[in-house]
Amino acid sequence: MENNKEFQENEIEMNENREAEIAENENEAAQAGTDASSKAEEHTEGNAEENAEVIDAAHLQNEVKRLQSLADDYQQRALRTQADFDNYRKRTLKEKEDFAKYASSKLITELLPIIDNFDRAIAAAGDSPEIESFAKGVSMIFRQFEGVLKAEGLEAMEAVGQPFNPEFHQAIMQVESDEHEEGIVVEEVQKGYMLKDKVLRPAMVKVSM
C-alpha cells in the first residue's frame, strides 16, 4: 500500500512538473511572439520614417528645380526688356540727332528757287556791259546768301563730267557727245544740292549716250 501511495505521489509530482514546464514554454512562446511583433512594428515604423524622408527629399528637389526654372525665365525676360529698352533709347537718340541735323531742310528747300533766280540774273547781267555794276552787286549778295546756306551744311553738287548716278542726278535727256564716253553728265540744267550727307535735291542733267 505504501508503495502504491508513493508511486501515485511521484506520478502527481511528475504531472505537476510537466504542466509547469508546458506553461513555462507557452509563456516563453507568447513572450517571443510579443517581442517579434514589437520588432516588426519598430521595423515598419523605421521604414515609414525612411520613406517619408525620401518623399520629402524628392519634393524639395522638384521645388528647387521649379524655382530655378522660374528664376531663369525671369532673368531671360529681364534681359530681353533691357535689350528692347537699349534699342529704343538708341533709336530715339538717332531720331533726335537726325531731326537736329536736318531741321533746316524744309527752309533751305524753299530757298533753292531763289538761288536759281540769282544764278539766272547774274548770267543775264553778264551779257550787258551797261549793268556791270549791278551784276557785281547782285553777285556779292548772292555770295553772302550762299555763305549763310553753306554754314547750315548746304553744298552744291559738281555734276558735269561725273558718271551718271541716279542717287545724285536726274537725267532729263540723253545727248550724243564726242568728248565724253557713254553715261557721263555733259550738261547741268539745274544744280543739285547736298545738305550735309543727304541729297536735298538731285541735279537735273543731260547725259551722254
Mean pLDDT: 77
Please describe the biggest sheet, giving its number of strands, its sense, and whether it closes into a barrel: 3 strands, antiparallel
Share of helix, binned:
55-70%
Strand element count = 6
Can you write the helix and strand succession as a string? HHHEEEEEE
Straight-line N-to-C gap: 167 Å
| Overall radius of gyration | 57 Å
Determine the structural class based on helices, strands and strand pairing: alpha+beta
- What amount of the residues lies in strands? 5-15%
List low-confidence stretches: none
Number of helices: 3
Oligomer: single chain
What count of structural domains? 3
Biggest sheet, spatial arrangement of strands: 1-4-5
Bulk shape: rod-shaped
Provide structural commentary:
With 209 residues, this protein is an alpha+beta fold. It folds into 3 domains: 1-98; 102-152; 156-209, Head domain of nucleotide exchange factor GrpE (Nucleotide Exchange Factor Grpe, Chain A, domain 2, Roll), CATH 2.30.22. The chain is built from 3 helices and 6 strands. The protein has helices at 2-101, 105-125, 132-151; strands at 154-156, 169-175, 185-190, 193-195, 198-201, 203-208. The protein has a 3-stranded antiparallel β-sheet with strand order 1-4-5. A 3-stranded mixed β-sheet has the order 2-6-3, with no helix packed on it. A hairpin with a 2-residue loop joins β4 (193-195) and β5. The longest helix has 100 residues, at 2-101. The radius of gyration is 57 Å and the shape is rod-shaped. The chain starts with a helix and ends with a strand. The mean pLDDT is 77. Belongs to the GrpE family. Residues 57-84 form a coiled coil. It is found in: Cytoplasm.
